[in-house]
Amino acid sequence: MTGCRRLALALALCLSTPAQAGATLDRVRHSGVLTTLVITDYPPFGFINARNELDGFDIDTAEAVASRLGVGLKLANPGWETIVSGRWQGRWDLCVCSMSPTDERAKVLNFPATYYSSPAWLVVNKDEQAIKSIADISGKRVGVGTGSTYEAYVNKTLVIAGGKPLEFPFHDVIVVPGDETVNFRNLALGPGLRLDAIVSDLATAKGNIEATHALKLVGTALYGEPNAVATDKGDPDWDAEVARVIAELEADGTLGRISQKWFGADITRQDE
Amino acid sequence: MSDPAPDPVHPGSRPVPVPSTGRFRAKVWLTWIVLLGLLGFGASRLDLDFALIEQKLPFLLGLHLGPDGFLQGAALTLFVTAASMVAALGLGVVAALGRLSANPVAFALSTFYGSLFRGTPLIVQVLIIYLALPEIGIVLTGLSSGIIALSLNYGAYLAEMIRAGVMSVPPGQREAARALGLAPWLIGWKVVAPQALRVIIPPAGTQFVSMLKDSSLVSLMGLWELNFLAQSYGRASYHYIEMLVTAALIYWLLSLVFELVQFRLERRFGRGVAGSDRRG
Q1: Using the beta-carbon criterion (under 8 Å), do B134 and A89 form an inter-chain contact?
Q2: pLDDT tens across A100-148, in order?
Q3: Which of A246, A251, A235, A247 is nearest to A29 (CA)?
């Protein structure tokens, strides 16, 4: 009998909407575990290190958040598409995965706090002569990560939530959305062979420039891209708690120290 | 390459035993070695970072447990494949029985299932099971979602193969067994199954080899299997090709083992049938 009742209760719990007010905060407090989404192929923010462990700026930040909350940390990596589609259904509590808050994403996710800012930059092959600034990409093939803010930027649709409107000084760009790793390899083959340019994050670009010796940065920063921690919709208490913790970690210098460790510079200060 | 004389027989296309098996075999091996050499030469032109491959190989093979204390790499690939294989076989048998059944509901259930899962891409099924089921309250882990998707998909194909195998057994066999007064389950087990398996095993074996490779789709849900690790290591180290080549090699070796097992099974269930030993 009790078995039956317990089953019925479990079913009822399963079928009820998990994202009620306070549900995530309750879950984290009761389980004592913060289940955090990270990415595995975005060094130095999130990657698998030589000891086969998840490592990087995002992972260190997630650890700092969990320890400030006084709970354990459990990392999950179900893939970018799954993360950005929202509707986590109680599977994950928080995403510390270098996500830029955009209007589109804000429809399915909440962004309680920005934790670092990184500029977007134009990258070309080192032998490229024609492209000297972003204005020169008109009519060119430009690679961008599928579903990234860079894709929205070259499509002239990017609106950074809470940011000032961007300028798009180019036209008729042939946008090539795809895998960023594959895009960088294609650009390294030669100027115009498969791609003419790439719009990407500065840290990502620098990593690829060092690795290939076949690429270079051109022009100036296109726009400063805030990166925020994200939560599922429906628990304002949890969002407030996350915002409080991130603000604390920023104020006491914890985030700055993590940034110094990975970049030798503090990218967590918001320079408006 | 050194022997320009064209092979007088075209063994693959003819259902006759090959004459002088020894010479034929030697030439086959020689050709394989030449092709392997060519492939190796091509790979050497890629300027691969072997130190990185050596460092990552134990993880790719899954010799250690992952950070979550579960299998990873090729070991997890094999686990997913084996678990899906068992479940797919069960589903396939049940669906085939439904397909052969005189009951219209059983027939409809079976054909509906087959049509749905053979008519949609596996990658779409994987994502729907992982992302859509939670919407109706069924929250599965990546591992169980992956195994369920692979099982459902391959079960639908296996059902057709099992049905074809059962139908290939001449009706006279069943009639004769009934005339002898054998129980229905005994007819199925001792008369139909052994003859049907001869027809089922070759295509079913091929299915399992392709399941081994299709299991890489579960990397979409963040399972640390062979393809996922190869992708993550490759991107993070900026040495993508190294990891892709290594993963390809491991998949290939595993497939070879599967094919060997299939070959043995084919020989065992083909006993006593003319021509079945021609590759032996």
Answers
A1: yes
A2: 998 889 999 999 999 999 899 999 999 999 999 999 999 999 999 988 8
A3: A235
Contact list, B231 vs chain A (CB under 8 Å):
41
Read off the tokens for A36.
Answer: 């955090």
Q: Are B224 and B72 in contact (CB under 8 A)?
A: yes
Question: Chain B contacts of A79, Cβ < 8 Å?
Answer: 220-222
Distance CA B46, CA A161 (A): 44
- A15-117+228-263 adopts what CATH topology? D-Maltodextrin-Binding Protein; domain 2 (3.40.190)
> Which residues from chain A sit within 8 angstroms of residue B137, using beta carbons?
14-16
Residues of B with CB under 8 A from a CB of A: 55, 59, 64, 66-67, 72, 130-131, 134-135, 137-139, 142, 220-222, 228-229, 231-236, 238-240
What would the two tokens of residue A27 be?
A: 């879950």
Q: Which amino acid is at B69?
A: G
Going from N- to C-terminal start, the domains of chain A cover: 15-117+228-263, 118-225
pLDDT digit string, tens, across residues A58-84: 999 999 999 999 999 999 999 888 899
Q: What is the pTM of this model?
A: 0.80
Residue of B10, B17, B29 lying closest to B280 (CA atoms)? B17
Q: Is A33 on the interface with B (CB under 8 A)?
A: no
Residue B9 has pLDDT above 60, yes or no: no
Cα distances (Å, whole numbers) of residue A206 to A124, A126, A228, B32, B245: 12, 13, 21, 43, 25
Other C-beta atoms closer than 10 Å to the C-beta of B192 total: 17
- A210-254: pLDDT as tens digits: 989 999 999 999 998 899 999 999 999 999 999 999 999 999 999
Could you say which architecture CATH assigns to the domain A118-225?
A: 3-Layer(aba) Sandwich (3.40)
Q: What is the ipTM metric for this complex?
A: 0.75
Ordered structural domains, chain B, with CATH: 73-269 (1.10.3720.10)
Do the domains at A15-117+228-263 and A118-225 have one common CATH topology? yes
pLDDT digits (tens, 9 = 90+) for B140-152: 888 999 999 999 9
Structure tokens at A247: 């603000």
